[in-house]
Design brief:
- It is a single chain.
- The chain is mostly helical.
- It has 2 domains: 96 residues, no CATH class; 66 residues.
- It has 7 helices and no strands.
- Helix 1 crosses helix 4 and helix 3 packs across helix 4.
Length: 188
């Protein structure tokens, strides 16, 4: 059995590596990979896995990341190796970022920095909205949807999802390109 009958989805590779990366501490990661990839899912044979395991041991870098890249590459090529590495590192990165943020909040001036970053982000979104609105002014249906959205969400404070479920189809229908009807002879 050299490869699974169906190609393994990138999401399946990401999910497996995410779970392994999130719940693995210390050694044993390669053993967990072996169990999941060879024994449980049948994505690789023992020979294929242990060839990659040997390669992961001799390459520079962390063995677990080398192993995830090998598994992803073997299953789906470059995209698979990217999905595997991203999956392996996402969980620990989020945990580390949360721990760092927890300490940063305690620093004097950090709330002011975050308020400044938020104000800049709001300004950028506002500018983008103004640019978008300027182009909508030339198209009456787009302007009507823009005003309806602003009134419903900004003034009436209605929930976003129901408003979008109503206005998005209307906006698409209003903007959908229409085929011009050919003139009939004698209509001039």
């Amino acid at each position: 059995m050299s490869a699974p009958a169906q190609p393994v989805s990138l999401f399946a590779i990401y999910r497996l590596c995410f779970v392994v990366g999130l719940f693995s501490f210390g050694g044993g990661l390669s053993a967990w990979f072996h169990r999941e990839v060879v024994q449980v899912r049948g994505w690789m044979t023992d020979e294929e896995f242990f060839s990659g395991y040997s390669l992961a041991q001799i390459l520079p870098g962390v063995n677990s990341t080398n192993m995830s890249v090998y598994i992803g590459q073997h299953l789906r090529g470059a995209l698979g190796s990217s999905a595997a590495l991203l999956g392996l590192l996402t969980g620990p990165f989020v945990i580390a970022a949360a721990a760092v943020y927890h300490h940063l909040v305690a620093l004097p001036g950090f709330p002011a920095i975050m308020a400044g970053v938020a104000a800049a982000a709001v300004g950028m979104v506002f500018r983008m909205g103004m640019t978008s609105a300027r182009s909508s002014l030339r198209h009456i249906p787009s302007l009507a949807v823009l005003i309806a959205t602003f009134v419903a969400i900004g003034i009436m404070q209605w929930p976003l999802l129901p408003v979008l479920l109503v206005l998005v189809p209307l906006s698409i229908a209003a903007s959908w390109p229409r085929a011009s009807t050919p003139e009939k002879p004698g209509d001039a």
